[in-house]
What we know:
The structure holds two protein chains of two kinds. By secondary structure, chain A is mainly alpha-helical. Chain A has helices spanning about 5-15, 50, 65-70, 80-110, 120-125, 135-145, 145-175, 200-210, 215-235, 240-250, 250-260, 265-270, and strands spanning about 15-20, 20-25. By secondary structure, chain B is mostly helical. Chain B is built from five helices and no strands. Chain B has helices at about 5-30, 30-45, 45-50, 55-65, 75-85. In chain B, helix 2 (about 30-45) packs across helix 5 (about 75-85). In chain B, about 40% of the residues are buried. At the A-B interface, helix 4, helix 7, helix 8, helix 9 and helix 11 of A face helix 1 and helix 2 of B.
Amino acid sequence: MFTGYCRWRLVKTLVRVQPGDPKKACLCRPFSCGANRAHLHLCPIFGFLAQLKPPDAGIGGPSHSNERLRSRPVRVKFPAYRRYREARIAASDSLMALFIGARLGGHVLSTAPADPSARMPQIFGLIPGIDRVNRTLGDAARLLGEAEGHLASMGIPYVLAVHGELLVAVIEMLREDGRDDPTRAWTIPRRTQPSEVSLDVIHEYVAERCRSAFPPERLELFHLARRVRNRILHFGGEAGSRLPGDYRGMSTVAKADWERLAAVRLRSVEEKSC
Amino acid sequence: MLTEGELIATLAVTHRLARAANLMLVQTLSREYWATLVARDYRDINPQRFGEVANRLRRLKSHALILYGPLGLTDAELQAGIAKV
């Protein structure tokens, strides 16, 4: 059942503001109960929402409580950060759409009523470029089923490149404000061009100029993702001998965090291929 | 083989680090720099409106409030920022 913040979001959706009228009316159009948010309990359809208990604001309450939302630090949306956000969302959406598209395509092809030995151009002749996949339906379904690893291999370097662009912009801002003094001896040496700062030290470079530090367990995870990217770009996806050792050598907190986020252990490391 | 999970983890990790970098900049860069950046940003987005001197500060305050709210820039700081653009 809907609880806490989710319930209020639902109520907000069901009880909408009428244009030009501050009064809020229930969406149960066929019944037209005329209830506003305060009188939602009168509605024969959505009235049950008013009977639900109010959100528990205590410890261990709903994960989307207003308290939790308020406690999140608000970010400054400077131009480079806005560009980064747009690029990250676009990359994330496109990649997720491709993952789902591959699964959807595989499912459709494997359950299609057509003969599995029929060729793709014969069945889907109207789709542009279908001639380049002159395979049987069964074969095409298998290809789509195996697409996940390839999509991840393309997506990880893409995501890290988008992130790298943001940090280059951050270094440029620090320089404009005189925080990257060329005469000073830095632990991470100053580079003439911010874009020349390598991804393996870019966070440390920024943190030193800010006299601060990134959370170490997050940096550990970033460096793991970066090493996976290196194996994809320079070694054709072979995990090699160092990456499994790096993974096993990570702190327990970082490893648990990675496995929680990825919902799997880094299987590629155990199978010796990315 | 890599999976969707590893990509999601990469997205999540970079997102968190980007937020940390954002906070780091807020704590490090001078208020003069931020004020100048706000003015420059608004001028780039809305050059025509920025040119209307009578309403410039009022509009810049709204812009600063929406996109740079956590900084809490004052009118005097924004005026100084305008002068540098």
